[in-house]
């Protein structure tokens, strides 16, 4: 069975919208696009490059797919894997694309079938609505979070919409010179409770 790995850059208050640039996603009147760029440094860049080099397939929401389809096919030199790997896109409206190795899915059941199939792990980048759906259905095996030291108040958030109660275990962590906390978490079973000091 393949793992579903959510890789996300978020603010301290959980915003993941338009971290890449001012025009990436202005929906809802969002005006802070490109908020991650001031925190770029060598350590953070190396962490991202390690992820880009992994052999993977990709699970994407429609909006992220449409943004990427207009960019990545022409920039294979930066991230060859995104063109070579299969892109599984959850969409009720899209049915075809010129971007090679793309498969369209319609339901959570379709995602579960892909997860149970043979192949490399499935990475999810961006795709906030898809991530919410995956969390609600307990389909996330790993969270790779890069937590940036700022709050934005408004914008699409990672845990919006009601994730189920779930425990995760930290398996890798580091902090960049610019203050970005990088934490990789794997699914750790059910939530446990206890009384402090008892």
Task: Detail the topology: elements first, then pairings.
Elements: E1 4-11, H1 42-53, E2 57-61, H2 62-69, H3 80-84, E3 87-90, E4 102-105, H4 108-116, E5 122-125, H5 128-136, E6 142-148, E7 168-175, E8 181-187
Parallel strand pairs: 1-5, 1-6, 2-3, 2-5, 3-4
Antiparallel strand pairs: 6-8, 7-8
Task: Produce a short descriptive summary.
This protein is of the alpha/beta class. The protein is 22% helix and 24% strand.
Comma- or semicolon-separated keywords:
198 residues; eight-stranded mixed β-sheet; 8 strands; alpha/beta; 22% helix
Task: Walk me through what this model shows.
With 198 residues, the protein is α/β, with parallel strands linked by helices. 22% of the residues lie in helices and 24% in strands. The chain is built from five helices and eight strands; from the N terminus they run βαβααββαβαβββ. It has an eight-stranded mixed sheet, with helices on both faces. A hairpin with a 5-residue loop joins β7 and β8. The protein is globular, with a radius of gyration of 17 Å. The N and C termini lie far apart (40 Å).
With strands numbered from the N-terminus, the spatial order across the biggest sheet is 4-3-2-5-1-6-8-7
Strand count, sense and barrel status of the largest sheet are: 8 strands, mixed
Radius of gyration, whole Å = 17 Å
**What is the overall pLDDT average?**
94
Q: Could you list the spans in which at least 5 consecutive residues all have pLDDT below 50?
A: none
List how many beta strands DSSP finds: 8
Structural class: alpha/beta
Indicate the overall shape. Answer: globular
Q: Fraction of residues in helices?
A: 10-25%
Number of helical elements: 5
Distance between the termini: 40 Å
Order of helices and strands: EHEHHEEHEHEEE
Strand content: 15-25%
